[in-house]
Amino acid sequence: MSKVKVKKHDTFIDMTAMSDVTVLLLTFFMLTATFLPKEPVRVIAPSSVMEIKIPDANVLTILVRNDGQCYLNFDRPNDRRNVLKLVGESHNLTFTPKQVLSFVNQPIIGVPFSQLPNFLDLGLQDQDDVLKVSGIPIDSANNQLRSWIQYATTVNPDLRLAIKADQDIPYIKIKRVIETLQDLRQNRFSLITVLRGMPEGF
Amino acid sequence: MADINTGGGEQKKGKPKKIQLRVDFTPMVDMNMLLITFFMFCTTLSKPQMMDLVMPIKEDNLDKSQKTKTDERNTITLLLGEKDAVYYYFGFPDYNDYTSLIKTDYSPDGLRAMLADRNGRIVRKIAELRLKKAKKEITDDDFNKQTTEIRDVKDGLVVIIKPTEGSTYKNLVDVLDEMQICSIGKYAIVEPEQGDFTLIENLMLQRNIPPPTK
Q1: Residue A187 forms part of a structural domain
Q2: N or C: where does chain B have the smaller number of CB atoms within 10 Å of the terminal CB?
Q3: Are A33 and B45 within 8 A, CB to CB?
Q4: pTM
């Protein structure tokens, strides 16, 4: 009986092609995707057929939490610095250079004026935790959202205002924000939505 | 982890050494996959859209003469009610006939069908234009110009949107969206009045009672 020879198979798989594919995919993602903005609450925006994309700069986003508290989100570090200066002047607050830097680095505004200095002394991680429970008061007696928007539009008159809110939030909460904007004679603003297809036949 | 295979074992003297150079790409693929996963979790492909909205100037800031009057024959008033219900009436509210207020919903057969029917002429024109744009017969700029022209006709439909406290934000955006779909040129968001609540109540209880006078 002859000995059966076991053929030695090479188990080496050539990964070059696979690597090519993954690099291509990666390049695609890097070129097309934009980073998710860091937000203290996650909202599901309602859908609409509007196809106008939100511009990259000069947008002041008013994020409305489900209980009606608001956050402000706006870009441009220089504007932020000037806004903080205005806040300091009108509320008799003084900010140390470290606090100013902290304000510029934190993209979200979301604490009452009185808590602002203490808030800015915290680290970025702790600030995020505080933001989850606090917010800008918008009661009729103490409408600080109004003041913030006023400062922001004084610093940058080209600012476009956009409201972002969850689709299930009661209208009355949004109404308060819209009324604040109307009081400031900001009658032109935008609602942030996600795209849905145009129905057939229209 | 590059595998450099030197042909193995003993070689016969005089024969040139056969060098096989193969680089293992597996770790590279691993790393790329990790990066792709990271990108998929931390980024978004779809940029959010924005819906432009122009609110009327607050009434206290206006004189009586500045208030806009609309032609009652072309006016539809929408009342956004609780539990995704929407009520509408044409022209002036009629307190003597509770059936003048009609209840519908946000489905395609509800509100959209009604608005598209009332605004049929304009809807058809815009649909034709869209088709032309899809076939690349007209440019985007032309399309935008012509749609604005069509929408701005003098006797076009005017829709007054009155969201009540029971409605949600989604209801409001849905209605504004219907304005886009049905190509309605003029619409405004207005506070509901006492009479509007009376109308809804009348419809529910099937009675005809005028609103309490102030």
Answers
A1: yes
A2: C
A3: yes
A4: 0.72
